[in-house]
Amino acid sequence: MNVVPGARAYIALGSNLGDSRDQLLRATAALDAHPGVTVVARSRYYRTPPWGIVDQPDFVNAVIEVSTSLSPSVLLDLLLDTERASGRVRDGQRWGPRVLDLDLLVYEGVTQDDERLILPHPRIRDRAFVLLPLADVAPDLHIEGQGRVVDLLESVDAGGCEVIP
User: Fold this and answer.
1) What are the protein's UniProt keywords (predicted)?
2) Catalytic residue at 88?
């Protein structure tokens, strides 16, 4: 795959264990410190109810837009390394509590579907906790096979989600 230096990618950040806002700040700084990644925009922080398993603390969510020279797979590896460095242990439980969750949502000009990575992320359209912060940084972004961010946001229930000042 040819990767264009300066390709845009969108990454969702979430946490509901420990000092969640600080976790997101540190993860953003760690990604920005990598030579192949530059953070160009960050959404506001949102407090959102848990999704999937609801008997857990609320999440803090955000989205960052990055310019990257890394391929999608190498960027995914960086996200997983950043999660591990924060203390995240992937134990196979989906939608449970976590100190840090980083999801590659969209990588400019790339569609991919393999055992490691699906791009764009297949469940963006269903998740207010992703669409709200994504609309802060890229409201007119068209997500292949799903639609434009602002249009998708109109069709989800954002009840219980609030901006953290």
Assistant:
1) ATP-binding, Folate biosynthesis, Kinase, Nucleotide-binding, Transferase
2) yes
Q: What is the DSSP letter of 120?
A: S
Which residue range(s) make up the domain with 58? 7-164
Active-site pick, 42, 47, 88, 125: 88
How many CB atoms are closer than 10 A to CB 57? 13
- Is the confidence at residue 3, as pLDDT, over 60? no
Tell me: the pLDDT tens digits for 9-30? 999 999 999 999 999 999 999 9
CATH number, domain containing residue 65? 3.30.70.560
User: Is it the case that residue 56 has pLDDT exceeding 60?
Assistant: yes
Q: Please report which confidence band the pLDDT of residue 2 belongs to, taking 50, 70 and 90 as the band edges.
A: very low
**pLDDT score at 134:** 98
Catalytic hit among 32, 103, 126, 151: 103
Catalytic residue among 42, 47, 101, 125: 101
Instruction: Please tell me which residue in 42, 98, 125, 127 is annotated as part of the active site.
Output: 98
Among candidate residues 127, 116, 130, the one with its CA nearest the CA of residue 12: 130
101 a catalytic residue? yes
**Domain-located, residue 1:** no
DSSP state of 57: P
81 is catalytic: no
Q: Model pTM? A: 0.92
Q: Total structural domains in the chain?
A: 1
